[in-house]
Amino acid sequence: MAAIDARGDDVVLGLEDNERSLMLTVFTDLAALLAEEEDEDGRPDSENWEARLGLVERPRPQDPALLRLLPDVDPLDEERSQEFRRLTEFDLKQAKAHNVRIVLNGLAKGPSITLNHDEVLAWMKGLNDLRLVLSVRLGIDTEEAQEEKYARREELEESEELTLTLYDFLTWIQDRLTTTLLSDLPGDDE
């Protein structure tokens, strides 16, 4: 079972091989979901200054999970949402992909992963994004939907049950990282 401990200014995450392998798989999938678009000349967004400056129209994501990561700024105003997407999506996608790369680099180090403060923050953001994707795939969009999913857990298909278990595992890791990081903050101990 995974273990998370503070060691000085660092956080050490210990994962068993099967946990690490699973996380490598799902974070690789998340990286693919966030992969850069190419223009008609085959240039990725990062090499296209027009895209970087928000001068290129960005279509609304068709995949509900990607739309959850890159939501409309105003679901009732399509034009406003499109303008916001054009101006911000490149940077938002790049930031999310950067966090995923930090997680994948950490996972590649082996079963014992030492994370500095900035890496812990990147892991927390990456875990949150992955949990958002999984919640969309599970059909969890409200607290009520989540409660119903857990109440019917015995009736779920095997793949859905495994996805829910993965969701729980990632939630636990994110919670432990957050708790560990918060315990190092100066302040009242009361």
TrEMBL record:
Pfam families: DUF2017. It comes from the Bacteria. InterPro entries: AosR. This is DUF2017 domain-containing protein. It comes from Brevibacterium marinum. The lineage of its organism: Bacteria, Bacillati, Actinomycetota, Actinomycetes, Micrococcales.
